[in-house]
Amino acid sequence: RDKIIEKNYEHLNENQRKAVLTGEGPQMVIAGPGSGKTHVIMHRLHYLISYGPIYNTYKVPEGITKEDIDILKNDSNHPRAKELLSYYAIDPRSILVITFTKAAAEEMKQRFYNMQDINSAKSQGILFGTFHSVFFRILRSAYGYHIDQVIKEDEKRLVLKKITEEMEIEYQDEQEFLNDLENEIGLIKNDLIHLSYYNSMTLPSEQFRKIVSYYERYKSQHQKIDFDDMLYHCYELLRNNKNILSLWSNRYKYILIDEFQDINKVQYETIKLLSAPYNHLFIVGDDDQSIYKFRGARPEFLLHFPQDFKNAGRVTLDINYRSTGRIIDISSSVISKNVHRYQKEIKTINEKGDEPVFIQSEDGEEEALHIAEWILNWKKKGMAYRDIAVIFRTNIQARALVDIMLDLNIPFYLRDEIPNVYEHWVAKDILAYIKLSKDLKDNESLERIINKPKRYISKGVIFEARKKNGILFENIYKTPYLQTWQVNRLEELKFHLDSIKNKKPGEAIAYIRKNIGYNDYIIEYAQYRNISFKGLKELLDEIQEAARHYESYEEWMNHIQNVGEEMKAGKRRIVGEMDAVTLSTMHGAKGLEFEAVCIAGTVEGVIPHNKSSSPAELEEERRLFYVGITRAKKYLAISTVKKRYEEEVEPSRFIEEMTKKPSLEEFHKGISIYHKKHGRGKIQSIQGTIAAIMFEKGILPRKIDLKYCIDKKIITIEKDATN
Length: 723
Ligand code: ATP
Ligand code: MG
What we know:
Largest sheet: 6 strands, parallel
Shape: globular
Low-confidence stretches: none
Helix content: 40-55%
Structural class: alpha/beta
Radius of gyration: 30 Å
Bound molecules: adenosine-5'-triphosphate, magnesium ion
């Protein structure tokens, strides 16, 4: 039997096949990017629904006799053997496949059904989902939850806002404050931390606990649950209710999980419950690609899997099918700088391929243009847009790229986590100033910015002014008890609005920031809220940079509207349906692959991001970069800028790490080298550490201290296809 089946998986390599054809019980596959982990999951599914595990220990299928089993064991040429195989096949409805995002789950499903030899009728019923979707399904069947009972993000926000208002907690900006609060409430649930032991990072812990308990009370009174509850409640339900647990663990006997390195505690504990007692749990992952620590992901669960499941099978995959030799060398050289990791070997059968190209630009705008040219160049050479991706560290970097894509009519997909910068409150403030300058009757805009910066126009005054019909600005003047100094502030505002009225958008923003004092307001705001000013400044810089391209407000506003619509369209597009370039953050690109990948904005402060400074955070940044570059199959471009928002920046340290430091012994007479300053050359002779090198650009050989150059990383050995 084994032989017949094995033949069907001949195209897999030995270790992949071993994983796919493994018996029942827990199984872990740990391996680097592009080694076929997801591929193995696909084939494992195929195998389960076509043949079933070879050692089906807990049930003999109906209709199978003792003789049959003998045939299967000993006589694979028997006419009945082939037919008998299918008796062991697993019902697809008992298989659960989990991954982390909706998009990824959808992509896995597509990938599975696109596999050759998938008999669609027979394969129907496998459940592909995210932890959230699966756990909610379980909750729903127990409590009869209706989808309306799930608190939507805006309702949750409103409830938390109300609670904090009633508790008279001071904050200046709602959005930021509530963001932090929501994240923290999520974290304690994901990590199964008991509230009474928890120290808050946003508020005094006492206050934080109170908010949480009010929030919990609200939800139970209204019979609602939120996104985090889906995980936590499901865990509680299965833990406390043996009947329900056994119902579900009997239903999904086979559980397969991709990207296991990003699992968090509550997810892991729930999966442990669900997969017991048989533990037909098949997990694949790569600790080097763990990039969700901030949301409670714990790669330790992957690494310690064999301790938790004593009889776990364990396979490592060591052949990379995705990328060229150079890309693999480069990425290994980068990730090897991480101290806390599980060492993995990786070989490739692919050719060495091209060196990465470096795209250098003055600033972000020029960079976007250069990247667009790079895309169009590939397109001209016959590559499809869908084989190209631009990957970046932070959402904000999407702004310039989206702009250029719109200008040059290049279709794009936007991975769904990327927000529109113009929808951020800072952008809205700026736009409100501009709109108000054009039209003093724009009451909404006035209300938005009247105390940004502080003009000491109290809520009471605005309330009074609002009671009267007409123009708010004028009504404020008419409110009783308005003091002269307040009037002066209003006059000053009017003067400023008049000054920006006819400016170009870019200049207007500069004026709002400096002369009106919006920058100072933001600094003060950040201090007050105890958050980093950097992120907000970056956003302002980005908006200002974007605006500089427009001559008039109308033109700019049109563009903003266009961006809003196109971004929505770009998100709605289904990958594969249209020929479009993918724009994604490093987080969003996990698991994907493209012929050509460009990493945008590869400079210090962006990647690694300036908010990450501890050694552990730097390792996470390095993993992010690693995820980015390992998406490339054949061509990798690394883009850097000299200036970001008018300030000089350094190339990312990860670029240096892409070049392995050669050792002195590797330098011999006759080999070709590359020197950062002098360019290409050939070594004529070596004495001690001093080499005489004939540079292509030179006339006479030059004496170079190899040791010094190696230490300073300014020399590399040029490898050609023959060595
Ligand atoms: P990541 O860690 O980035 O998610 P992965 O380990 O899941 O990577 P896959 O996406 O499964 O890797 O595989 C990478 C590429 O290699 C895919 O295009 C896949 O089809 C191909 N591949 C995997 N195994 C084989 C094989 N045995 N023969 C040919 N191609 C293969
Ligand atoms: Mg994968």
